[in-house]
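User:
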Amino acid sequence: MLQTYYDRVRYQISPIFSFDAESFDIDAQHRFSLWDRHDITWGGNYRLYHSKVFDNGFIKLTPEDRTNHVYSGFIRDDITLIPDRLYFNLGTRLDHNDFTGLEIQPSARLAWTPNAENTLWLSVSRAVRTPARAENDATLDFLQFNNVPGLSLLPFPLKAVFHGSHSFQSEKLLAYEIGYRH
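Assistant: Predicted structure:
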């Protein structure tokens, strides 16, 4: 299977905030059986995301114009341990992004189907959330207090500012799951 798309759009969120964005994505997958008990699925993905945010005094992205790339690959083996009854799934996904580098996301799942109406499963997997561009590049002036009762004694206006960080780390999740379906 091969799938691709291209999207280009100009967002005009308000009279003072707009940005241009374009993205290109290509995804390939291949599935095949190996011996009698293995069903292998593997593939890869490439995503290009380009955006330009127009400075408006409220939000500023530095640099204004940026292109990000995400590369990923995965492999999964669905192993039949006992035909129509016990299955083991083992796989991993490898992602590389411009913000945090290489991210590894392995997973394993064991499923038992004692009959056609019931399934019991156990799984463990690691998931990663890639930081967004704003978490890395943005400066956001979101609150400014002038002439606020009780704060009027301050010799300066009080301002709250969000700054993105180049040392931002991806969020990681180690998930355990047990389930039953009837």
